[in-house]
Design brief:
This protein folds into two domains: about 80 residues, no CATH class; about 170 residues, no CATH class. A six-stranded antiparallel β-sheet has the order 1-4-5-11-10-6. A five-stranded antiparallel β-sheet has the order 3-2-7-9-8. A hairpin with a 2-residue loop joins strand 10 and strand 11. By secondary structure, the protein is an alpha+beta fold.
Length: about 280
């Protein structure tokens, strides 16, 4: 769209002239049916050639093409973070893309302060942080015994090239933040987000109403359109905060939030933590 029709026709004529100068055999195409027939012949010839080439070599050639198209559009640190293993396997080191001398984690931008996401009430006695796909399942993710009350969900974001990614999320009582303590466990993520649940309310209802729970959960699992939000479950009289998990699927560490020697909340690290980075499965 950046050139005129006259310029396109002129360019076509120049290429055609170069072909005739080299005495290449050309096929005239005068109708749409003729063009479709020619494209089909080209497609069949391409498929025949691919079938004659070793599968591993085809994979290498295809991956090289992807890398060649990607590196021009990406910052060097982003390219190496996502494609470094493939590039090393292929010995693909274009001059413009240079692997940073510092560790991969140093290519990430600075984290924001803690940003308020929401408040929600825990009516039971257990706080749960888990894969959003598992919301409604008891015993999944990381569960902490807590006192009923109003809890705050906060997140930190990190610059990532031209993108912004949620790097951490924490949940704590409204007037009792706490500080990060020991490792509470890990949360595995399959749908690129975690959920925060009043497990006693949600899982008890889901267990007794499995069909209704499946219908309720479908929108939460597959219909999310924002990186963070709230999803209500009126039958269980609770809400489920959800938050995107850094770069997507993977396994992430969850730490206790401590206050006066007591665990009062949970904090999950998606980016910025060496333990988190080494376990991420990039999609």
């Amino acid at each position: 769209m950046s050139v005129s029709l006259a310029e396109m026709v002129g360019g076509h004529r120049e290429r055609l002239s170069s072909f005739t100068t080299e005495r290449m055999q050309l096929t005239g195409v005068a109708t749409l049916d003729g063009a479709i027939e020619l494209m089909e012949r080209l497609h069949q010839a391409r498929m025949t050639w691919r079938a004659s080439v070793d599968e591993d070599e085809l994979l290498r050639a295809d991956l090289r093409l992807v890398l060649a198209n990607s590196y021009r559009k990406m910052a060097a640190e982003d390219f190496w973070l996502i494609y470094s293993h493939a590039a090393e396997w292929l010995d693909f080191h274009p001059a413009r893309v240079r692997e940073p001398s510092a560790p991969v984690g140093s290519a990430l931008g600075a984290e924001s302060d803690w940003l308020f996401h929401c408040e929600f009430e825990i009516q039971g006695k257990r706080l749960q942080l888990l894969d959003v796909l598992m919301a409604g399942n008891d015993g999944e993710g990381v569960i902490l015994e807590v006192s009923p009350g109003v809890y705050v969900v906060e997140a930190r974001v990190m610059t990532y090239g031209i993108d912004r990614r949620i790097s951490r999320v924490r949940v704590h009582p409204k007037r009792e933040t706490g500080t990060p303590g020991g490792l509470a466990g890990e949360v595995g993520v399959d749908l690129a987000a975690v959920a925060v649940c009043d497990v006693d309310r949600l899982a008890a209802w889901a267990h007794d109403h499995e069909d209704e729970w499946q219908r309720w959960g479908h929108q939460l699992w597959y219909g999310r359109t924002t990186p963070a939000g709230l999803y209500a479950c009126e039958p269980a009289r609770t809400v489920v905060p959800f938050i995107d998990s850094g770069l997507g699927d993977g396994t992430y560490p969850v730490y206790y939030l401590m206050n006066d020697g007591r665990a009062v909340g949970l904090e999950a690290a998606f980016l910025g933590s060496p333990d988190a980075r080494k376990r991420v499965v990039h999609l």
